[in-house]
């Protein structure tokens, strides 16, 4: 998964759950606010109802007082007449038009400096009593709350129709004295009556009932949102598990490994811990599937996943990469780098040994490449500094490179990545990226190494060798690029290029009237085993027109063990076209005398290793060379000895009838211009 896909996945995770959580929190907060607001409204409604009812009575008294004054009765007499009987004992306070007290009963009087602010009843004149401070709305709410707990704890224990219950519900829980005033129409007078506001338990009960109903009504969407939030969380967890699941093993996949591995390596607590990223590879997995079936192969991978799950710790991770490759992030303890590497090697070796026992009746083999991740400490690293720019894919690539470099060796199943290996990898990458351009720019130069007659010492031939003169790096020797060309298949294009350059060189010498000597050109074994090679070489040479017998085609001894029938046909076709064919590096490997019998070769080149042996071998090396020369003579083949560096070797080969010698004793490979000077001098 790319970095863009990873970011999209993270955004998906956040978007999936957070809207539900946010909605749940908002609705829950709203419900609490509505509950509090509803309580206030209920209390204010009860208070307003009681005050409004009392005010109606006061206003009625004010109307009766007006009728008496309209009949000619003085205000004071009218007040005494009205309130002396029916309202005896009621505190009354009457003021005239000029504000003076006209009539008063009781010991208290209105406090004209403290007008009461009763919500929802702003038009009613309400005053505090001079002898009693009026309680605020918040205090009344607190009384309501206490009464609500009292009702819930006691009232529900009685029967509703029981008299005790009715008395209990009628019991006041709050009382407050205050004055209500109303104007006396037409007279300018004001009537004030002292009233008492009482809140009974049944008032609280009704407010409680309405509150519970409102809470139940609001609780329904809260419950639905809560269920939706839980379902969203479960769904997200399921989707995350699905995205992180490997479809073959049922375990974790590579996306999980990358995300969790990066979290492990970037944790602050892991700064002083070393880790190893391992490429664990099951060898010949495709062959296993072909033999035992696809299902058996996947079952084996599933068993590997289960085995690793039991062996990998909490601060570690593993997952299948692809095919039969697993990635492991393991913690490596130790007091030094050497100790950590040694413990890591032992642990991986133990894992490989146990893995081979997953199928006791089947031979399975594993190898591993390890990329060590050192401690994140040092003089320039702060204690709070974390590992940054952790790229699990790149770290795994290095581990894989270490494994591939030693793949196929029975002795070494475990290999560690190092900087030298990275340098080789970068070099191979550079060669692969630039070889096509280098060929188009003709950066590959022909160098010629002379071949001499050991008896006369005359120059009688040459071998064409390639040198890469890079425009950016200078001279590059064949050992640094030929193996890469052979692995990539580009070697066939280089073969064609060298044959064309040698053919062109021979044609130029012919036109210039120079001495004509045969030049041998190496043809890779992969190229030599291809059908149609003889016709292709003939076209390349004929494009310049030199004689075919001036060009000799060399193929290494190892090629004779692969596609032998095609190779024999190719040699016969080349000989039919007039080219000479030689076996290069004879004796370097396991020489096949049977190949000499079946393939009509012209030249046999003795490998230089024949002449680098110990001088105290009892003459065994000379016996082998002597017999090889005699064998070639009997087969009517010319003999070339390469790698000759001493005069004693030259004398021995001359005495045995060797036809040509090449080596540093006479000359190293040289540019064409220098070779032409030497050729003119020897001529």
Strand composition percent: 15-25%
CATH class of the largest domain: Alpha Beta
**Low-confidence region ranges:** none
Q: What integer value in Å does the Rg equal? A: 54 Å
Number of strands: 21
Average predicted local confidence, pLDDT: 82
Instruction: Domain count, please report it.
Output: 3
The CATH architecture designation of the largest domain is: Alpha-Beta Barrel
Q: What would CATH call the homologous superfamily of the largest domain?
A: EAL domain
Helix content: 40-55%
- Counting DSSP H or I runs of 4 or more residues, the number of helices is 20
Task: Tell me the overall shape.
Answer: rod-shaped
Q: What is the CATH fold-level name of the largest domain?
A: TIM Barrel
Biggest sheet character: 10 strands, mixed
Distance between the termini: 69 Å
Find the structural class using helix and strand composition. alpha/beta
Topology:
Layout: H1 3-70, H2 75-83, E1 92-95, E2 101-104, E3 110-115, E4 125-129, H3 137-154, H4 163-170, E5 172-184, E6 189-200, H5 201-243, H6 254-266, E7 274-282, H7 285-292, H8 294-311, E8 317-322, E9 325-332, H9 337-355, E10 366-373, H10 392-405, E11 414-416, H11 419-440, E12 444-452, E13 459-470, E14 474-476, H12 482-488, H13 491-512, E15 519-522, H14 525-528, H15 533-542, E16 551-556, H16 564-576, E17 580-586, H17 593-598, E18 603-606, H18 620-634, E19 638-642, H19 647-655, E20 660-662, E21 670-671, H20 672-682
Parallel strand pairs: 10-11, 13-15, 15-16, 16-17, 17-18, 18-19, 19-20
Antiparallel strand pairs: 1-2, 1-6, 3-4, 4-5, 5-6, 7-9, 7-10, 8-9, 12-13, 12-21, 13-14
Helix pairs in contact: 1-2, 1-3, 1-5, 3-5, 7-8, 13-15, 15-16
């Amino acid at each position: 998964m790319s970095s863009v896909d990873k970011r999209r996945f993270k955004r998906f995770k956040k978007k999936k759950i957070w809207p539900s959580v946010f909605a749940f929190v908002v609705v829950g907060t709203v419900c609490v606010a509505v509950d509090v607001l509803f309580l206030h409204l209920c209390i204010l409604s009860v208070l307003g109802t009681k005050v409004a009812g009392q005010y109606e009575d006061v206003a009625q008294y004010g109307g009766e007082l007006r009728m008496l004054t309209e009949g000619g009765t003085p205000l004071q007499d009218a007040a005494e007449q009205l309130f002396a009987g029916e309202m005896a004992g009621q505190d009354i306070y009457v003021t005239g038009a000029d504000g003076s007290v006209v009539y008063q009963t009781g010991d208290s009087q209105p406090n004209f400096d403290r007008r009461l602010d009763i919500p929802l009843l702003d038009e009613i004149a309400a005053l505090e009593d001079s002898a009693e401070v009026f309680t605020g709305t918040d205090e009344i709410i607190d009384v309501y709350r206490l009464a609500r707990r009292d009702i819930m704890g006691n009232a529900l224990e009685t029967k509703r129709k029981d008299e005790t219950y009715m008395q209990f519900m009628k019991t006041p829980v709050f009382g407050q004295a205050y004055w209500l005033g109303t104007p006396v129409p037409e007279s300018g007078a004001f009537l004030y009556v002292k009233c008492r506001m009482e809140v009974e338990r049944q008032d609280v009960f009704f407010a409680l009932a309405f509150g519970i109903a409102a809470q139940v009504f609001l609780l329904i969407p809260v419950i639905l949102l809560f269920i939706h939030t839980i379902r969203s969380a479960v769904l997200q967890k399921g989707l995350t598990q699905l995205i992180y699941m490997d479809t073959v093993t049922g375990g974790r996949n590579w996306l999980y490994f990358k995300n969790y591995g990066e979290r492990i390596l970037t944790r602050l607590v892991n700064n002083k811990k070393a880790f190893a990223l391992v490429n664990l590879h099951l060898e010949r997995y495709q062959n296993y599937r072909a033999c035992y079936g696809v299902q058996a192969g996947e079952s084996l991978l599933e068993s590997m996943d289960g085995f690793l799950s039991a062996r990998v710790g909490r601060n570690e991770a593993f997952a299948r990469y692809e095919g039969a490759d697993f990635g492991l992030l393991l913690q490596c303890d130790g007091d030094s780098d050497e100790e950590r590497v040694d413990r890591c090697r032992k642990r991986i070796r133990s894992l490989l040994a146990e893995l081979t026992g997953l199928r006791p009746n089947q031979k399975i083999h594993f190898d591993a490449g390890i990329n060590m991740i050192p401690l994140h400490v040092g003089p320039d690293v702060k204690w709070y500094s974390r590992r940054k720019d952790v790229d699990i894919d790149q770290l795994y690539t290095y581990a894989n490179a270490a494994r591939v470099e030693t793949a196929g060796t029975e002795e070494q199943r475990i290999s560690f990545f190092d900087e030298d290996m990275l340098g080789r990898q970068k070099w191979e990458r550079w060669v692969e990226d630039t070889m096509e351009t280098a060929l188009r720019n003709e950066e590959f130069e022909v160098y010629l190494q002379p071949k001499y007659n050991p008896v006369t010492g005359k120059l009688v031939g040459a071998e064409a060798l390639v040198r890469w003169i890079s425009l950016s790096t200078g001279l590059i020797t064949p050992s640094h690029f030929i193996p890469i060309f052979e692995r990539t298949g580009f070697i066939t294009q280089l073969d064609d290029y060298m044959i064309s350059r040698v053919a062109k060189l021979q044609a130029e010498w012919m036109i210039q009237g120079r001495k004509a000597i045969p030049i041998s050109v190496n043809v890779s074994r992969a190229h030599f085993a291809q059908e149609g090679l003889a016709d292709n070489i003939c076209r390349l040479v004929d494009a310049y027109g030199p004689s075919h017998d001036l060009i000799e085609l060399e193929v290494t001894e190892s090629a004779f063990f692969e596609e032998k029938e095609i190779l024999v046909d190719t040699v016969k076709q080349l000989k039919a076209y007039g080219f000479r064919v030689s076996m290069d590096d004879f004796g370097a490997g396991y020489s096949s005398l049977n190949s000499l019998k079946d393939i009509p070769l012209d030249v046999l080149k003795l490998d230089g290793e024949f002449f680098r042996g110990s001088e105290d071998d009892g003459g065994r090396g000379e016996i082998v060379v002597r017999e090889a020369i005699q064998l070639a003579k009997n087969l009517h083949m010319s003999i070339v000895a390469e790698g000759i560096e001493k005069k004693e070797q030259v004398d021995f080969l001359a005495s045995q009838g060797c036809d040509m010698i090449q080596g540093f004793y006479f000359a190293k490979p040289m540019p064409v211009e220098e070779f032409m000077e030497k050729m003119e001098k020897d001529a």
